[in-house]
Amino acid sequence: MRWGLDTYIGACDALITDHKPRIPKLFISDMDSTMISAECIDELADFAGIKDQVADITERAMRGELDFAQALTERVGLLAGLPEEAIAQCLDERIAPMKGAKVLVATLKAKGCRTVLVTGGFHQFADPVAEDLGFERVVANRLGVDNGKLTGGLVGPICDSSTKKATLLEEMAAFGEGAAALATGDGANDIPMIEAAAYGVAFVAKPKARDAANGWVDSGDLTSVLRLLGVPEKDWVLG
Fold first, then answer.
1. Would residue 186 show up in a list of annotated catalytic residues for this protein?
2. Any signal peptide, and if so, which residues (predicted)?
């Protein structure tokens, strides 16, 4: 049976499942171009005057044409020497929630869903984004900083597609059999997580991620995910 937004607002968004959707116990989401409307590393690179160069690598990695860890290491290396204060400026000037993100997170939390932000981006961005949106846990990479400047390296292990899937499985182990997870993302790095979730929703996604999902939102905003789950608008938590 197909349950989707075609029931509500048109056939462009849908969720395909063998049961009527229910509220998940876990909501786990990518950050860049999913919960926020930008790619943080691309915007940060703009402060170093190399946005086009970095954005091209980002785009190819998101399409699944490049190894994520290699592409991340290459892009971070290009930021060596950038003043640390560029992060705060970038957050203030360039990073904003995706439309509907706060409503989605707040509504799911109100219905007893645990929320986790897991990203191939950086704690320096993800931590304040998570606090603003209401996520309860953050899993991310961390930019190396020394003497007030980016080192061009990372601190700790790389958070990649396998980390995203492992985080989902770790979180779901606490809920027991029969619990459902919702995962949202837009790039190739999100595919294992999307495939592992009962409801894997590709949000305005690259073709490979969309093909891997059993749900997709191709237009509109993140409140469309609530519609896919059958949550009536009267139950949305607006803030």
1. no
2. none
pLDDT of residue 219: 85
Residue 112 corresponds to which tokens in the numbers above? 């007893």
pLDDT category at 42 given cuts 50, 70, 90 is: very high
What is the chain's alpha carbon radius of gyration, rounded to the nearest angstrom?
17
> Of 6, 13, 30, 46, which is the active-site residue?
30
CATH code matching the domain that covers 2-37+97-235, chosen among 3.20.20.140, 3.20.20.70, 3.40.50.720, 3.40.50.1000: 3.40.50.1000
Interacting residues of 155 by C-beta distance below 8 A, sequence separation 6+: 142, 143, 144
Every domain of the chain and the residues it spans? 2-37+97-235
In this prediction, residues 180-199 reach a mean pLDDT of 97
Total-model pTM: 0.93
Task: Out of 6, 13, 32, 160, pick the active-site residue.
Answer: 32
30 is catalytic: yes
